[in-house]
């Protein structure tokens, strides 16, 4: 089912903007916009993978005490 709604365009500084109605609300705080012919398509930005998030973290500059290499504790099942 396609939903269609007319919306108003307005200026935001030097950019043109459109308020997205609640029924078209996108998750998150980023989106991807592209133009295909005369159509403008806006879709949710993909969620970064865990690996991408981990790669974006800054290294920890703190020294930690070494962890001993002792035997594993027995576990009763």
Which structural class fits the helix and strand makeup?
mainly beta
- Uncertain segments of ≥5 residues (pLDDT<50)? none
Dominant shape: elongated
Tally of alpha and pi helices? 1
Major β-sheet strand ordering: 1-2
Terminal CA distance reads 52 Å
Average pLDDT, all residues: 90
Strand residue content? 25-35%
Rg measurement, Å: 24 Å
What is the total tally of β strands? 4
Describe it for me?
This protein is mainly β. It has a domain of 44 residues. Helices cover 8% and strands 26% of the residues. It contains 1 helix and 4 strands, in the order ββββα. The strands form 2 sheets. A two-stranded antiparallel ribbon has the order 1-2. It has a two-stranded antiparallel ribbon with strand order 3-4. β3 and β4 form a beta hairpin. The longest helix has 6 residues. It is elongated and about 65 Å long. The termini are far apart. The mean pLDDT is 90.
What keyword list fits this structure?
two-stranded antiparallel sheet, 77 residues, 8% helix, 4 strands, mainly beta
What is this structure, in a nutshell?
With 77 residues, this protein is mainly beta. It is built from one helix and four strands.
